[in-house]
Amino acid sequence: MTLAQETNVNVVLRKQGEIVLEERPVPTIEPDQVLLNIKVTGICGSDVHYWLHGGIGDFKLKEPMVLGHESAGIVVAVGDKVNHLKVGDRVAVEPGVACRKCEECKTGRYNLCLEMRFAATPPIDGTLCNYYAHAADFCYKIPDNISLEEAACIEPLSVAIHAANRSKIRSGDRVFIFGAGPVGLLCAAMAKASGAGHVSMADISPQRLEFAKSYYTDSQIVLQRPDAGESNIEYSRRTSKAILETEEKADVVIDATGAETCVQMSLMLTKNGGCVVLVGMGSAVQNIPVQEISAREVDIRGIFRYCNTYPRAVKMISTGSIDVKPLITHSYPLKNAVDAFEHVKSGRDGAVKVVILG
Amino acid sequence: MSTTSAIPAVIPGLSSYLNKAPKLSNSVPQPLVSKQSATSEKADVTVPVGRASRDYKIPDEDTKNYSVMLNKKEDLQMVEIPVPKPAKGEVQLQVKATGICGSDVHTWKHGAIGIFEVTDPIILGHESMGIVTELGEGVTDLKVGDRVAIEAGIPCSECDQCLTGHYNLCPDVLFKSTPPHHGVLANYITHPTKWLYKLPDTVSDEEGALLEPLSVAIAACERAGVRFGKSLLICGSGPIGLIVLAVAKAIGVGPIIITDMQDSRLEYARKMGADFVYKVDPTKKDVEVAKEIRSMLGSAPDYSLECTGVESSFRSAIMATRDGGCCCMVGVGKNDQLLPVNSFAMREVDIKGLFRYHHTYPTAISLIAGGRVDIKHLVTHRFDFKDSLQAFEVASDYRTGAIKVQIFN
Q1: How confident is the model at residue B372 (pLDDT cuts 50, 70, 90)?
Q2: What does the sequence similarity comment in the record state about its family (chain A) (predicted)?
Q3: pTM
Q4: Does residue A293 belong to the interface with chain B, where contact is any CB pair within 8 Å?
């Protein structure tokens, strides 16, 4: 096998705060794997979080780890047991390989697999490199009318698809979303694709909401910061009351921030019998207005990554049900990966999704 | 009925129970039976256990109608009220059996329940069955002498929630005994026929009055989606927890682990067929309790039904539930609670609450009549109507070992 380039540059988080480029061997593949030339990788907030904080929740960085998990690439080698892909195929990469044998996997909820190997979650190396070996059944061929940049966005889009599935958005529903970052915006896109009648979006950043105006949202609400000395629950009661002066209660509220106030407001803004979906990750323990759950039967549920989303995502992008291109605002070559991370951290120049090109 | 020398005052404006409670007169109702004599008399029950009574009295102009009325916080009295006349679509009933609910006791002791405050005297009670004594205009689906169970919540039947099958969430629901609406603990009441259910003889009076808490249990199992062959954690072995246990077993759910702080209640649960009973130590950390529950059950429960309303119990239930499972809060607790959000969000444990029930009475009647669920043994204490105040005292004192206290007329 001859490769276009023999070097395999990896973007490695050596320890908290330190990203370096490293040459590593080109990996060998198992019979059920393919070797991919990674062409595009989007940067996720979680990559940035690992860089800045050295861990997320219980997942802690103990040794150097390659970053990145939102990737698309080209097949350059296939294992003996692989039948559905061939050299030259363009694919979207689903970064989490499940065991396929446990009860969760067998009942279709492989995102909850306890043996899950998820790229860029310690200790599993991520996809920000030139050559990556991956289970062939977690690589999805994309048609010619989907670019590799769009294919890389299928990963964050999957989070939104899973959120939409879990929330059971139905046609005509009112959906309210907290958070106008890439995930919140993709949730808006999914809400509309699911047939939602009205999508409202709230954020503390007027600039982000400016972008949201032209991306699948019908109304935008700028949130103020809490007053000095005001508790979160007081802020949430006051603010949701104010929001309800111009907005109706929603069938589904998605929180894509993880902030305690937004979680509280999500419950207060949902109709009786409606549903709140927590997409953002926040503090382990939060003060929750349980009376909204008990007296009004508002369900609250979270999501953990996604499952069974890639084939649907490919179809939706291919047929134009969803357009992810507007979200890709900036790109950097692989050798300037550190600059790309700095850009995402600063959020400057209206950055939504920053991608790294291999 | 024992009498005192005082002539009880008749409270005007009580003839219609349908409207939001009309303002009552400001005069304090004179007690029919003094509180002292009520508690010292021995309870004397005239309805034998397990009977489907057929005797009733159609009221005449001399018939007095007494009610158990909460005048204000901690001031419960037997008060005479007018015999109500049924409006169009209603019937008049002689209430034969009524269970006392924890919410009745709470309203009595605190003068409020949730956001609803007792601002005017209110009749308590909502777990009842009775016998039809008079038909209102246009009533053809019931006849005098019919035994019926009473569904105490009357929704508007026109709003979005009602029309999509969630009438329990109707914003205008009139739930009898939630302030300001009068409950059903009186000798005679009126009620729309639409919210009454005929009882076969295979459902006794006690069971007729148990259909309401049984409805809560059925609704809880529906909300959480418990299914045969799946495991269940029930928090709390009070009447609701125990009836949930009975329903879960009837639908093939298992193994079932149930918790409580009292040994006697856990023993009761064991006798009812709980596979495991776990005694809660309130000094233990919630995460410790969750671990021990999982360890005793041998695995993480697929579902949990929280029937205490206590914050720490809710937290333990959330943490114990398996990934991808469901934890449903049946009990009513504090408004704002500190919950382990990552534990449920990142493990995809769905959190649901329950507000009363809808479309459960026919199911409840079927489960009892068909012998699938036997819960009449939960009625541990029985009182004649005249001893109602004593019944409330017993219901509110856990040292009596009371599970369900019922009042018979």
Answers
A1: very high
A2: Belongs to the zinc-containing alcohol dehydrogenase family.
A3: 0.90
A4: yes
